[in-house]
Amino acid sequence: MHTTSDLPIQSLGDALYTALREAIPIDPLTARYPGMTIDQAYRVQQRLIERRLQDGERIVGKKIGVTSRAVMNMLGVHQPDFGYLTDAMIVNQGDTVDLQALIQPKAEGEIAFVLKRDLMGPGIGVADVLAATECVMPCFEIVDSRIRDWKIRIADTVADNASCGVFVLGSQAISPTRLDLYTTGMVLEKNGEIVATGSGAAALGSPLNAVAWLANTLGALGIGLKAGEVVLSGALAAMFPAQSGDHFRVSIGGMGECAVRFA
User: Fold this and answer.
1) Burial degree of 223 (CB within 10 A; 0-12, 13-18, 19+)
2) Of 25, 110, 161, 170, which one has the fewest beta carbons inside 10 Å?
């Protein structure tokens, strides 16, 4: 049993990086460091991202996780978390996700925001998010955990870049002012069968609330959301395991659809 005062931030970040690159999971960090704080977990996340950037990846956006009440209850927390998106995580609509590069992927249907202006908290509200958004798009986030068997607590998923794997954006881009993002409905299909439905309200009451939360949380850390960045605003329903041959499609009212295959 270790104390958190001797938490080896760098080596934990390196261990997650190796797990990512080799697609071999590791035991939960909180099994060794049960007292790990969320702040410490974000420092481990920074080390993981630093290693990816050293490989030539570049940051293209952010993701918000733990936005649903069910997931918060599962992890015993009352706040969302965030992670970074890099260009290496982009899967183009119509392309196939390579399962060799992932460990235990699950598909989530979400609404993605593409920003046309910088957003820097604190003090960001829903109106600011709307004004800064170029468009919204249906998307899949393929979450993946470098922690064995998804045995995660909040510090584990934060350290692991909010369990981000890859993401797929739909082919349509719609102005957010043309939709009610609170009530807009989502239908998620797996291999032609409807497996989940949801609405924008599942993400902190509205995806706009989720993006405002992110801007304000990052602002407190001196980090801004930048024009051109993609923000994944949180799952609108449960996540579903993906295996070779699976085909998923998400349809979001007024926004079109997004599809992804696995091989």
Assistant:
1) middle
2) 25
List Cβ neighbours of 74 (8 Å cut-off, separation of 6 or more).
Answer: none
pLDDT at position 29 = 98
Over the chain (263 residues), what is each successive 10-residue block's mean pLDDT? 74 98 98 95 98 98 90 83 97 94 96 98 97 98 97 95 98 94 96 97 93 96 96 94 97 96 97
pTM, to two decimals: 0.95
Q: What is the DSSP string of the chain?
A: ---GGG--HHHHHHHHHHHHHHT--B--HHHH-TT--HHHHHHHHHHHHHHHHHTT--EEEEEEE--SHHHHHHHT-SS-EEEEEEGGGEE-TT-EE-GGG-SS-EEEEEEEEEESS-B--SS--HHHHHHHEEEEEEEEEEE--SBGGG---HHHHHHTGGGEEEEEE-S--B-GGGS-TTT-EEEEEETTEEEEEEEGGGTTTSHHHHHHHHHHHHHHTT--B-TT-EEEEEESS--EE--TT-EEEEEETTTEEEEEEE-
What is the token pair recorded at 218? 């990052």
Q: What is the pLDDT of residue 5?
A: 66
Instruction: Using alpha carbons, select from 225, 112, 89 the residue that is nearest to residue 173.
Output: 112
Q: What is the pLDDT of residue 194?
A: 98
241 Cβ neighbours under 8 A, 6+ residues apart: 104, 105, 106
- Domain 58-262 indexed as CATH 3.40.47.10: no
Specify the pLDDT at position 4: 54
Please state the length of the chain.
263
